[in-house]
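Researcher: Next entry in the queue.
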Amino acid sequence: MKNIIEFLSQLKENNNREWFTANKSLYKEVEKEFNAFAEKLIEGIAKFDSSIKNLTAKDCTFRIYRDVRFSPNKEPYKTHMAAYICPNGKKSGLAGYYFHVEAPGANFIGGHLLATGVHNPEPKVLQSIREEILDNGDAFLKAIKHAKGFELDESSKLKKVPKDFPQDYKHAEYLKLKNYSLMKFVSDDFLMSDNLLENCLTEFRKSLEFNHILNRAAHFAFEEI
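Model: Structure for this entry, 225 residues:
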């Protein structure tokens, strides 16, 4: 990941089309390197999560070009590279495994990240996840605890329990969430390790049951649509 981090760092300091065009060949090299790692991640995750089989890097990685049409930030390029490995690919709306490399000092997320779960689910899926927690809250809590080293993303959370759910439910705090994600920030040293792939797979494997619970709820929601 050294070349990738160095490129993103340079891009952060030169986020303009002139610089990017002059260094397009360098970008293509790091893109190829990142995609190759994403392919290995997909292959490794598929060994313990069969729902990931038959995906390609193209199904899971994101363009570096920013959509600036409705953003006050007009910088044309992202200063991070990421892969979201989930059933049917990154646009499926299902829970999966997220690998994120960010330029030092960038403020998109605030660092390199491993995450798992589902971010900003559509309303029907969000409702179904909350119903799953209401029916199987103990199993949901157990899945979170099993993902040791990850922290639940509570950055976007309702102040009150949604009106359709019992206010006195013992796991009511989890019903307030709007994102059902587990997060683990990692260091440059983590990314530079010769065992990066194995270490990522070890971490992601901890969240297998968490994702299965979320996707059971998501599939139910999609069947109802």
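Model: Strands lie at 80-85, 96-102, 112-118, 151-152, 180-186.
Researcher: Noted, moving on.
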